[in-house]
Amino acid sequence: METNAAAIRRRSILVAVFTIPTVVILDQISKRLIWNTYGPAGDLIEDEFLGGLLRFHFVRNTGSAFGLFQGQTGILTAATFLAIGFLVVFFIKNARESALVALALSLLVGGAIGNLIDRIRLGYVIDWIKLPNWPSFNVADSAITVGVIVLFAAIIIRDMQDGAREYREQQAESRSSSQPATLGTYNED
Q: Does residue 180 sit in helix, strand or coil?
């Protein structure tokens, strides 16, 4: 019979094996569709959906999130390789404790790989989703954002479970130490 730790480890690996390629494939397919629809002149073309709430607009992002570090493709490519390496090591050490942590780390790795492919292949990242008052982004960026949120949620859940377990242990310990001593018989003779 499989132990609980072995089952969680197996689930975590399955989550990673499914999630990482799914994110990369969805990201690259969506970018290819945007490229084919808007092409290199896409900077000049924009389609609106949901009354302007959602816009599709081809953007060449030579920087990072929120348009930071524009023109630093080489540095960002190296940083992405380092980040992926760190996330893989972190996954190996920590994902086996929770399928939720495995999901979060897999989303982060898949998103990083999706954008890394663009940086290596094109020298920039294709961003194409635009919301009001928000910089353009893509599927990989969305996966990274959701991965961070899920990772924080997993950490909070783990800490709450650890706190509850510690509280139960303290309560059990205080109950056992506060039991009154057994009364002996008292003889007046």
A: coil
Residue pLDDT tens, the chain, 189 long: 567 778 878 888 899 899 999 999 999 999 999 988 887 665 556 778 788 788 888 888 876 665 655 656 677 777 787 888 888 887 887 777 788 889 999 999 999 999 999 999 998 999 999 998 888 899 999 999 999 999 999 888 888 887 777 878 787 777 777 655 555 555 665
The answer to whether residues 26 and 141 touch, using CB atoms and an 8 Å cutoff, is: no
Residue count of the chain: 189
Report which of 74, 114, 96 is spatially closest to residue 8, judged by C-alpha positions. Answer: 96
Which residues form the catalytic set?
127, 141
The pTM score is 0.77
